[in-house]
Design a protein that fits this description.
Helices cover 67% and strands 10% of the residues. It has 414 residues and is an alpha+beta fold. 30% of the residues are buried.
Length: 414
């Protein structure tokens, strides 16, 4: 039995919560924009700035690969010697002019190694773009489920308010007839105010979920409505991938390939580059001409790139260890995702097939019995609380299953 102070306190709290109602009205949307999960996924893939950035990164990596395969430009030179001096070397009559061209030759396979390294880095960028899309898909699936759950909670709150209004009317009739004390009416009115506050909160939460989903593609959230199943499997989705086929493992392998290519590049950089040159020299005093040629060869006595090779070799070993770690993580993630989905699905089935039906039947019986005078108000309120608790538990279970399904699809992405 509730004391008068406790009931009055709950009425005051519920009325305070009900002040959220103006905010809820402000969030109300005049038009509805139904959207299925498939449509949400397509819309996000088309409009997500994150995917746009990932695709641009791939283009940049491919451009760097092209640039890495470019050779060194030749150099054109022109020299004038023995002019504007003293005696016979005054003026330009005894000058010597040489025009020539030189070319640095990359030895040791530098160009090929540089191009191969850039190409493997571009491959990493491609996998990262696929990971970005898979992560985006997971976010869409999760936020779509959040929106669907918010819609169900709003519907649940609306029905609870309808029942609370009806209960207040029945209580007033019984109090007016002298069959219930006035405290019962006050308690029923408190329940109605509390239901109104919960409806306002549910309305605001729906608007938050709409904004969260639409923000993934920068669209308008007004009137966004989730329709259809909360989770599903597309034709390209896989839920039974081998661990070494997953995107995360493929990324670690690609990064290892980059490390191996970088090691080959550092070894190639240890080779010295030779510069050859050739040209024509003219002697102004006699008008004679002669060919000139030369070769420049660095002497590798201070820099043999030993440090670069050692560092690249260590990075290669580290990348190899990370591949092993990635395989272990892939196996764990796949197993955890499957187990989480199966557990969530079992909970949903149990609540849908048994608990919710029983709670709904108990609530109906309590309402009928109270109207007939066979039950007390507290019995109806207890049944209402139990029903709301079970329905919210079912929504939580469906949300957990949808999130588990999103994690399962993401962990199996290839």
């Amino acid at each position: 039995m509730f004391s008068m102070n406790r009931v009055c306190g709950r009425v005051a709290l519920a009325c305070a919560l009900a002040t959220v109602a103006p905010i809820a009205v402000a969030w109300a949307q005049p038009t509805s924009k139904p959207m299925t999960l498939a449509q949400a996924l397509d819309t996000a893939r088309e409009g997500s700035p994150l995917l746009g950035a990932a695709n641009a990164t791939v283009e940049a990596a491919r451009a760097r690969e092209t640039q890495a395969g470019a050779g060194i430009n030749p150099e054109l030179s022109f020299n004038v010697e023995n002019f504007s001096g003293n005696g016979l070397l005054s003026g330009m009559d005894s000058s010597e002019s040489t025009i020539g061209i030189s070319q640095q030759l990359e030895l040791g396979g530098k160009r090929e190694a540089r191009s191969d390294t850039a190409g493997r880095q571009a491959d990493v960028s491609v996998i990262l773009s696929l990971i970005a899309r898979a992560d985006l898909d997971r976010a869409v699936r999760e936020r779509f489920a959040d929106l669907a759950a918010a819609e169900e909670r709003l519907e649940l709150a609306s029905l609870a308010l309808e029942r609370a209004i009806k209960l207040s009317g029945v209580a007033k009739s019984l109090v007016d007839a002298g069959r219930e004390p006035p405290l019962r009416l006050l308690r029923a009115q408190a329940q109605e105010a509390e239901a109104q506050a919960q409806l306002s909160i549910a309305t605001v939460n729906l608007a938050v979920a709409q904004n969260a989903l639409s923000s993934l593609w920068g669209g308008q959230a007004a009137g966004l409505e989730a329709v259809g199943p909360w989770e599903f499997q597309r034709s390209e989705d896989r839920v039974n991938s081998a661990p070494d086929e997953t995107l995360d493992y493929r990324l670690s392998k690609a990064e290892h390939d980059v490390a191996e290519a970088a090691l080959r590049l550092e070894k190639a950089n240890a080779w010295i580059d030779v510069t050859v040159s050739a040209g024509m020299r003219r002697f102004e005093a006699t008008g004679d001409q002669a060919w000139v040629a030369g070769v420049n060869i660095p002497i590798p006595i201070q820099n043999t790139n030993a440090g670069g090779i050692a560092a690249a070799r260590a990075e290669d070993r580290a990348a190899e260890f990370r591949v092993s770690v990635a395989l272990i993580d892939a196996v764990r993630m796949l197993n955890d995702a499957r187990a989480a989905f199966e557990a969530a699905d079992a909970r949903v089935q149990a609540l849908e097939n048994t608990a919710v039906l029983q709670a709904e039947e108990a609530l109906n019986l309590a309402q009928i019995g109270y109207e007939a005078g066979r039950f007390q108000l507290i019995d109806v309120l207890d049944a209402e609380e139990a029903f709301s608790s079970i329905r919210n538990a079912l929504i939580d279970a469906k949300l957990a299953r949808a999130r588990a399904a999103a994690a399962l699809v993401r962990s199996n992405a290839t």
